[in-house]
Amino acid sequence: MSKNLVIVESPAKAKTIQKYLGKDFDVKSSFGHIRDLPKKGMGIDLSNFNPDYEVSADKKKLVTELKAAVKKADMVWLASDEDREGEAIAWHLAEELKLKPENRKRIVFHEITKNAILKSIENPRDIDQNLVNAQQARRVLDRIVGFEMSPVLWKKVKPGLSAGRVQSVAVRLIVEREKEIREFVPKASFKLDGIFLNKAGQEISAKLKKDFNKEEEAEKFLEQSRTAEFKVLNVDTRPGTRSASAPFTTSTLQQEASSRLGYNVTNTMRLAQRLYEEGYITYMRTDSVNLSQEAIEGAKKQIVSEYGAEYSAPRNYTTKSASAQEAHEAIRPTDFAVKSIGDAQLNRLYQLIYRRTLASQMANAKIEKTVIEIGNPKLVQHFEAQGEVIIFDGFLKAYGIVKAEDEDDENNEKLLPKVKVGEILDYKKITATEKFTRPSARYTEAGLVKKLEELGIGRPSTYAPTIQTIQNREYVDKREIEPQTREVVKISLAKDTIKKEILEEKFGGDKNKFVPTDTGEVVSDFLTDNFKEILDYGFTARVEESFDEIANGDQKWKQMMTDFYSKFHPRIEDVEENADRATGDRLLGVDPKTGKNVHARIGRFGAMIQIGETEDEEKPIFASLMTGQNIATITFEEAMELFRLPFDLKEVDGQPVSVGVGRFGPYVKWGETFISIPKGEDPLSVDQKRAEEIINEKKIADAPIATYKGEPVTKGSGRFGPFIKYKDIFINVPKRYDFENLSQSDINELIDAKLEKEANRYIQQWEKEKISIENGRWGPFVKFGKAMFKIPRKADENKYEADELREVSLEEVKKWITDQDPKAFAEKKKPAAKKAAAPKKAVAAKKTTTTKKVTAVKKK
Asked: Where is the active site (predicted)?
């Protein structure tokens, strides 16, 4: 064993560092944090805010191995990342492994290169407790907010909800943007475009400098233009420049990877992490745009070599954010001589980083901008044509131009023909088109990151998990918004003739943008109404500033917690005691058949329409909303249509057929099989013929593709990708197989491997009791239903061997379960006879106004 033990947080990083340090050092990975707050319970003493850290179950074996390695080493080098999270990992390792200051050293580096590693070894330090305390403050504060606010949501909105400090603010941004879009009233105006011809027949496209508010004004202008002589009134040509953007920070990388590569934030950070750990780029969590002198020199050498000296313009950039102090450089390549790497997916992101860094050190692009004014003194407005010519491409040679997310499709980068002032032009066509103003765009992932950064909410390391969390909690999603249609007026002047047309245009549609769910909107409104300070953008930013002050040693973290909690907890108690329940209830109208009120609201199982009141003697009836419908916008007519679902059709092949809508959208039910109705198709429009078409498509899709030992094998695609099905076993098909052309040998190989794995899975199994002892990744465990339980040690403190577990009785296993969960076998209370059943199975709505409930259905 080496005298020097280096501990990093990831195996990929360990592998890269090992090759630089050689045989005198042994490099091991902690696989991230080895301990944290407990998963169950708050784990914080609220009298003094001391956290109760514990080693997670899946890390106990690893910690034992690290302790053994520490005993054999003279010096332990803690080499986790250089940010607060990395500092906390190093501190937890030092605490758990009982490392004394004299036999531990902390080293940091922002790139994994030989020079950087060796330099860090030469300049070690101890653990920075201020950075650790900043991380602890964030962890403890967020745990308290989540654990105290979530039960309030369970009581006041519906069970199973959760709240978080940064996540709730991110949801609020999305909800407020959606409300802004709903309330937006578009205003119409007429924009005029003209195409003019010079004597040489060259076209000049121009726009009228001012829009008309009324159709009559636009039509009058076209009438005047019909006989007008158009001239070039002015030509203005002036030089201009375009300069490169600064090198990437975490947030700008996330935004640009979204715009140019179509990567989501999580994927961008995953790939960037790999690039960093494999030594290709500097540390990828940074607020800084600075470059080291070494990097500036490296970029200059590459630019001069590849493009020429005239393209080089070395410069450094100043970071605007006052809190950008955890990492000292922007994200850049570690070696500019490495122009590309082998892995195609990694290379796409690497190229983006490489070219952005090079461009930041290149000369400005030189352009010539030309503006031509076209008109007639008799006309109230004149046309303007704009064009740009690139005289010297500069940084564009490396990076090019990308259109901003909210930039208009029209651009001015076109070459204009040479004309002189006073030159007469003929109009080819002048068009007045009715245009409507548009509301602010919904947030993309990149747009949300940009907004969070602008408001000072969160830090580079929090953007990706925040965005993932709000989707996992189903507070927001990226469902497709179907566009609406409206009429627009288009008036054209060509060949002395004016022509008017009424056209249709689609508007309001969206894809891959964040939309709040009904639950997300109700939760956000409730939290904003009752916890104004926590949901306040300024407050959230101030909390981040406090974390920065703690990291700098300017504030005590427990004092910050005391100040926060002294105001926060009384508010929790007040809201829990006095706030009204939140359901997002909207009274839509009165059911003409029963005379009862029709409500749109959030219920225990999500968004629904309710006819009648819960306190009525005759219980209400319910209907689930369809995908794309929202309790805040659904109309009375749309709501009443939902009570037609489910409805029955004629049998097909002796099996009953019905159409309904459930948790996963509209479906056709054939026997016990649920078949999704294609996206965008209205289930109420599905008749007998269409239902049979959908069933036949399902039959074809489910037809056996082969047999295995005389049994049919089918294939399909599910939430985890393509699969084949044999008996009741689903087998994922890896990418190395050609899913569309699976051979019999492929199928045999896949099923054989799955059966072998299943055979080795169970040590003992009691199917009736739903209890089993199974082999897992970290060793044997007990499974009861969906819950997993640890296997205790024997009386002599040794672990059970597999042969011994095969002899353990069911009663003994049950005892293991109840020791860990005393209520595991407690008899569940049966629901009262008159109580509406949980929405697991669809029931046909009766024509009479009985207590029947139209419920959500889980597709099989």
From this structure: 283 (o-(5'-phospho-dna)-tyrosine intermediate)
Helix (H, G, I), strand (E, B) or coil at 239: strand
pTM: 0.76
Listed in order, the ranges of the chain carrying CATH 3.40.50.140 are: 4-127
Rounded to whole angstroms, the Cα distance separating 651 from 673 reads 13
Q: Residue 734 is which amino acid?
A: P
Structure tokens at 212: 């008309």
Cα 399 to Cα 155, 247, 354, 396, 621, distances in angstroms = 53, 12, 9, 5, 60
CATH numeric code, 140-183+519-578: 1.10.460.10
Closest-CA residue to 35 (of 8, 57, 56): 56
CB environment 560-592: b (16+ within 10 A), e (fewer): bbeebbeebeebbeebeeeeeebbbebebeebe
For 642, other C-beta atoms within 10 Å of its C-beta total 21
What class has domain 250-363? mainly alpha
Contact 442, 513 (CB under 8 A): yes
Please indicate whether residue 567 or residue 832 has the higher confidence score (pLDDT). 567
SS (H, E, C) 647-698: EEEEEECCEEEEEEEECCEEEEEECCEEEECCCCCCHHHCCHHHHHHHHHHH
Give the span between the Cα atoms of 448 and 438, in whole angstroms: 19
What span, in angstroms and rounded, lies between the C-alpha atoms of 171 and 193? 41
CA distance 368 to 96: 65
The amino acid that residue 425 corresponds to is L
| Helix (H) and strand (E) counts in the chain | 23, 34
**Whole-angstrom distance, CA of residue 637 vs CA of residue 625:** 13
Contacts of 199 (CB under 8 A, 6+ apart): 423
Kindly report the backbone phi and psi dihedral angles of residue 79, in degrees, each rounded to the nearest multiple of 5, phi listed first: -120, 35
In 10 A of CB 187, how many CB atoms? Answer: 9
Residue 435, exposed/middle/buried by CB under 10 A (0-12, 13-18, 19+)?
middle
Three-class secondary structure of residue 452 per DSSP:
helix
CA distance 264 to 28: 31
Residues of the chain with CATH 1.10.290.10: 250-363
pLDDT bracket for residue 402 (50, 70, 90): low
Residues spanned by CATH 1.10.460.10 within the chain? 140-183+519-578
Report the C-alpha gap between 549 and 559 in whole angstroms: 12
CATH code for the domain defined by 4-127: 3.40.50.140
Which has the closest alpha carbon to 733: 750, 719, 745, 749? Answer: 750
User: What is Dmax (Cα atoms) for the chain?
Assistant: 106
Give strand pairing partners of 371: 236, 386
- Environment class of 430 (CB within 10 Å of its CB; exposed 0-12, middle 13-18, buried 19+): buried
Q: What is the CB neighbour count within 10 angstroms for residue 692?
A: 17
pLDDT tens per residue, range 501-541:
999 999 999 988 999 999 999 999 999 999 988 888 888 88
- Check whether the bond before 646 is cis (ω within 30° of 0): yes
- In this structure, what token pair is assigned to residue 74? 């003279």
pLDDT digits (tens, 9 = 90+) for 361-392: 999 999 999 999 999 988 989 999 999 889 99
Give, for 6, the enclosing helix (H) or strand (E). Answer: strand 4-8
